[in-house]
């Protein structure tokens, strides 16, 4: 039988939904872009442009659109610039295919970041 935890034992954090995590990652990436701590590479700007143009009609990042961006970026995306942009796209794909109730808001937040990233020129923040 397991021993009971002492009253002052740390409490495990509540699980966070993929959509909530995605929104947090998008916000952190955008904030780092604003402060100059992160700047998109040419590949990342190109993929952001692909997503912005591909979602221009309905402003929605779909699983199919995200899959095509991940395919286009392939292995380089996982390593380029610390892999943050690739991780954001990968989680976006997972959320887009999910049935989480807050997925639309998280994906909208990511699309907003894509608008900003694709508009940045080399060295701009």
Molecular structure report:
The chain is mainly alpha-helical and 125 residues long. The protein contains five helices and no strands. α1 (18-35) runs antiparallel to α4 (84-97), α2 (42-54) packs antiparallel against α3 (63-79) and α4 packs antiparallel against α5 (103-119). The longest helix has 18 residues, at 18-35.
- Beta content comes to under 5%
Q: Which H/E pattern describes the elements?
A: HHHHH
The residue fraction in helices comes out at: 55-70%
- What Rg, in angstroms, do the CA atoms define? 17 Å
Tally of separate helices:
5
Topology:
Elements: H1 18-35, H2 42-54, H3 63-79, H4 84-97, H5 103-119
Which features would summarize this protein structure in a list?
mainly alpha; 0% strand; 125 residues
Quick summary:
This protein is mainly alpha-helical and 125 residues long. The protein has helices at residues 18-35, 42-54, 63-79, 84-97, 103-119.
């Amino acid at each position: 039988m397991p021993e009971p935890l002492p009253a002052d034992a740390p409490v495990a954090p509540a699980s966070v939904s993929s959509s909530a995590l995605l929104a947090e990652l998008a916000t952190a990436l955008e904030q780092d872009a604003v402060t100059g701590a992160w700047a998109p590479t040419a590949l990342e700007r190109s993929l952001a442009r692909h997503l912005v143009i591909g979602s221009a009609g309905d402003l929605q990042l779909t699983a199919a659109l995200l899959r095509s961006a991940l395919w286009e970026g392939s292995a380089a995306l996982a390593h380029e610039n610390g892999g943050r942009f690739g991780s954001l796209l990968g989680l976006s794909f997972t959320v887009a295919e999910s049935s989480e109730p807050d997925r639309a808001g998280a994906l909208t937040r990511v699309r907003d970041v894509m608008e900003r990233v694709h508009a940045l020129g080399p060295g701009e923040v």
